[in-house]
């Protein structure tokens, strides 16, 4: 439908400008593929972070590397004026080398795109200010979602960092990925 096509077109417009080791590469937009309009992305041989968490032992050393990859990718996006708006374990692929790659920019917001983006997210990972419509989406909104992921990656570590990242009031969270990394 028309809304789905707009979301795909916006995702393509945002994705085609991105080039980072921890972000999926967007290759093309096909108006008339056999399944309808579609975005062509690079193939990543791996599993979602959700699958990895269910198979792997939580809190292991590799999770530190995965977290650094995720933070580097989101930091890159934020410096490009892009909010992901849908950070969750299903939108992070862990490739066969253990590197994290961020996918799915369908709900992203870009200040410089011809598409204004939508405010969105997924149940259980969306910042409260987005859910209740009382706030502005910004870096702290993505940081809220990252705080939940940190909690899943490290159930026994980084509790203070996760707690600060997931404060109800966005002004009490880390205000940038750099600040979160320093913590």
Structure commentary:
With 183 residues, the protein is an alpha+beta fold. It is built from 7 helices and 7 strands, in the order αβββααββββαααα. The strands form 3 sheets. A 3-stranded antiparallel sheet has the order 3-5-6. Strands 1-2 form a two-stranded antiparallel ribbon. Helix 5 runs antiparallel to helix 6. It is globular, with a radius of gyration of 16 Å. The termini are far apart.
Q: How many helices does DSSP assign?
A: 7
Largest sheet: 3 strands, antiparallel
* Class based on secondary structure composition and strand pairing: alpha+beta
Specify Rg, calculated over alpha carbons: 16 Å
- Secondary-structure element string: HEEEHHEEEEHHHH
Shape: globular
| Approximate strand percentage | 15-25%
What topology does this entry show?
Blueprint: H1 2-15, E1 26-33, E2 36-41, E3 46-48, H2 49-55, H3 61-79, E4 82-83, E5 92-95, E6 100-102, E7 109-110, H4 128-131, H5 139-153, H6 159-165, H7 177-182
Antiparallel strand pairs: 1-2, 3-5, 4-7, 5-6
Helix pairs in contact: 3-5, 5-6
Summarize, please.
With 183 residues, this protein is α+β, with helices and mostly antiparallel strands. It is built from seven helices and seven strands. Helix 3 runs antiparallel to helix 5.
What labels would you give this structure?
alpha+beta, two-stranded antiparallel ribbon, 3-stranded antiparallel sheet, 39% helix, 7 strands, globular, 183 residues
């Amino acid at each position: 439908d028309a809304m789905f096509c707009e979301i795909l077109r916006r995702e393509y417009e945002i994705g085609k400008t991105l080039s980072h080791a921890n972000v999926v590469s967007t290759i093309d937009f096909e108006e008339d593929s056999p399944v309808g309009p579609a975005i062509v992305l690079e193939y990543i041989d791996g599993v979602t972070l959700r699958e990895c968490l269910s198979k792997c032992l939580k809190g292991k050393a590799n999770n530190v590397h995965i977290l650094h990859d995720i933070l580097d990718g989101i930091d890159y996006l934020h410096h490009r004026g892009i909010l992901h708006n849908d950070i969750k374990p299903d939108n992070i692929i862990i490739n066969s080398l253990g590197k994290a790659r961020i996918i799915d920019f369908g709900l992203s917001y870009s200040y410089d795109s011809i598409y204004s983006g939508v405010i969105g997210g997924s149940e259980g990972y969306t910042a409260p200010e987005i859910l209740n419509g009382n706030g502005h989406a910004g870096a702290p909104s993505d940081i809220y979602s990252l705080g939940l992921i940190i909690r899943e990656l490290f159930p026994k570590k980084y509790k203070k960092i996760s707690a600060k990242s997931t404060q109800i009031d966005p002004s009490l969270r880390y205000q940038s990925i750099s600040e979160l990394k320093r913590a």
